[in-house]
Amino acid sequence: MAGTSLLALIDDITTILDDVAAMSKVAAKKTAGVLGDDLALNAQQVAGVNADRELPVVWAVAIGSMKNKAILVPAALAISAFAPWAITPLLMLGGAYLCFEGFEKIAHKYLHSEHEDEQHHAELVAAVANPDVDMVALEKDKIKGAIRTDFILSAEIIVIALGTVANAPFSQQVAVLASIAVAMTVGVYGIVAAIVKMDDAGLYLTQRPGASGFTRGLGRFLLAAAPKLMKFLSVAGTLAMFMVGGGILTHGIPAAHDVIHHAAEFVGSAPGLGGVLQAVTPSLLDAVAGVIAGALVLVGVMAAGRFLRLFKRSH
Description:
Strand content: under 5%
Radius of gyration: 23 Å
Distance between the termini: 80 Å
Number of strands: 0
Largest sheet: none
Helix content: over 70%
Low-confidence stretches: 1-27
Number of helices: 11
Order of helices and strands: HHHHHHHHHHH
């Protein structure tokens, strides 16, 4: 009987771990929209930091990110336990923010002049080159700013992950959110560290004494690929934000979800490419919904900001 009970216990544990693994995979897919933008944004945060300080800065931000998640995971679990009705509104809010952030990135070049961007970059370069500037203070400011940004992105990740396990037992919610928090932090900042040192690795390979032609060619490839990789991550992250954010919003609005479902079934009946069209249509329509939602939120934010400025002037 003892052996049977032990086997039953092991079987139960295995089943729970399988469920946790499956839900973690779903949660990871749902949070992928934040991941691409998270990578690009955090890699950009170390711009202007001396090369020998890039990895310490990334490490400091990673530690701050873990502290953020140590606050956010218990908060999310408390919401799930005591106010489960708030999960859907929080998901919708997170989805709307994702769409807003994505659309704001697209609209940035229209809202801000190229001269403003060039001036900001020139100020950053001048600060790095100026020996009178306290680089320790500049570095600490960058770290604090990156950790504040990470808090917002981490909150999005945790809320989206919570939505995938809202109906699961509490122990599985704990396991999934904790695993997502650790995996996202290690994954994001491990990749960020690799990205920010890619150009240094390329420069080292090109200048390495006695390096072969292949080694030097690899170095030149890394030097050329680093800025292109940043650009790709930024574009892919923006697209994923629209798809994930729009998907959250359409799933939260039954009528919109039904329209997308029927549209996918309709194009699926097309001869030849029906299966492919049916598979990609929901994601494309989610992205369109995300763009529209992002535009509406941005207009609302700008209108509110303008109203507040007028209100302050009048008082």
